[in-house]
Amino acid sequence: MSPSTSPRFFTEWEVARHCTKESCWVLLGTRVYDVTAFLRMHPGGEALILRRSGKDVSQEMEGPPHRHSENARRWMEQYYIGELDRDSGTEEAQTLRERRKADEQTGGQTAEKTTDMKVKQEDENSPYNRCSSVDLDKDLVDWGKPLAWQVGHLAEKYDAWVHQPVDRPIRLFGNPFMEASTKTSWYWVPVVWLPIVFYLSWDSYTSLAKGTTRIALTSDFSVPVHKYIFPLLFLMGWFLWSFIEYCIHRFVFHMKPPAHNYYLITLHFLLHGQHHKSPFDGSRLVFPPVLASLVVGSFYAILCSTLPEILGTSVFVGGLCGYVVYDMIHYYLHYGSPKRGSYMYNLKAYHVKHHFEHQRAGFGITSTFWDHPFNTVIPDEKF
């Protein structure tokens, strides 16, 4: 709802009726929010919101056990739909009712501006004033046009802007073909890469089973490689991918581009910034084909240049399987609703905190393992 639009009013009974997955409303003071679209995205799981549907969540927003970040509060404002109309009325609700009545009677632009100024002055002391509505029409970019060529002009404002997430799809390019090349449906990752994983696993194992593979330690001495070493090589590749995943996420995706460099800002937005700006745009949650092929190809080339081909392939296929699992887990962390207390539940909460509060920490996706030795662990909080 635009800040300049007169709000609708709802009774407590009307709000309380919306308490299902199909329609879930909550209150924040006298403000009414339709959070139906956010249920599956909530890091604490949809059940936590459903138990509080139709009720005031002010205490839960402030904590304990978890105080929600400013980004989380700003995000919530995107679901604002109106005000609570109590019989006794509060000063804030009464002010808004008078504003709407004035708008309906005058309908004039001058009267609307005057009323907005009065309401703004009277609402300055409201505890929810800091949760200002997200007005995309007044954003730093024009959301009606492709964003790829706009973000570079944000300069020093880019870093703060890109880490204020919004719930809306992003269009990067005007050209339909270029735009399509930046999107990937989640199911294409296993469809494309798992057959390659199965084939290379079978080929590596059968090649090792021939008993002809040896590692030369000196010119006169070599060690045979048994076929049963394949699972160890596979797991080694998976472990190596987890480290590569962490390094790419931390040092490439989360680099802070120089404010004066238009091209590096644009590159950062295309690589990962757009994901932080719109973290629930499902078509951009997995690696696009070009980037995935580049990463996978580079990984294979490095391994085969440092190890005998069959050993390099065995390690590579484990890393490739790790990449598939990484992309699938990443998608699930954004759209899944894991059981409370499970590993995936805690991992989802950890990752969403990375998006909303700790953008310079919590770089692990499939696990938090590498965050510990590199001291980038997000502080533990209960949800």
Automatic annotation (TrEMBL):
Q: Does the keyword Heme apply?
A: yes
Query: What's an example of a GO molecular-function annotation for this chain?
Result: free fatty acid 2-hydroxylase activity
What cofactors does the UniProt entry give for this protein?
Fe cation; Zn(2+)
Q: Can you tell me where the transmembrane regions are? A: 185-202, 228-248, 285-303, 315-333
What topology in the membrane does the UniProt record assign?
Answer: Multi-pass membrane protein
Which SUPFAM superfamilies does this chain map to? Cytochrome b5-like heme/steroid binding domain
The catalytic activity of this protein is classed by the Enzyme Commission as 1.-.-.-
Task: Return the Gene3D superfamilies for the record.
Answer: Cytochrome b5-like heme/steroid binding domain (3.10.120.10)
Where would you find this protein in the cell?
Endoplasmic reticulum membrane; Microsome membrane
Name the family.
Answer: Belongs to the sterol desaturase family. SCS7 subfamily.
Free-text function comment from the UniProt entry: Plays an essential role in the synthesis of galactosphingolipids of the myelin sheath. Responsible for the synthesis of sphingolipids and glycosphingolipids involved in the formation of epidermal lamellar bodies critical for skin permeability barrier. FA2H is stereospecific for the production of (R)-2-hydroxy fatty acids. Plays an essential role in the synthesis of galactosphingolipids of the myelin sheath. Responsible for the synthesis of sphingolipids and glycosphingolipids involved in the formation of epidermal lamellar bodies critical for skin permeability barrier.
Q: What is this protein called?
A: Fatty acid 2-hydroxylase
Q: Which organism is it from?
A: Seriola lalandi dorsalis
Cite the source lineage.
Eukaryota, Metazoa, Chordata, Craniata, Vertebrata
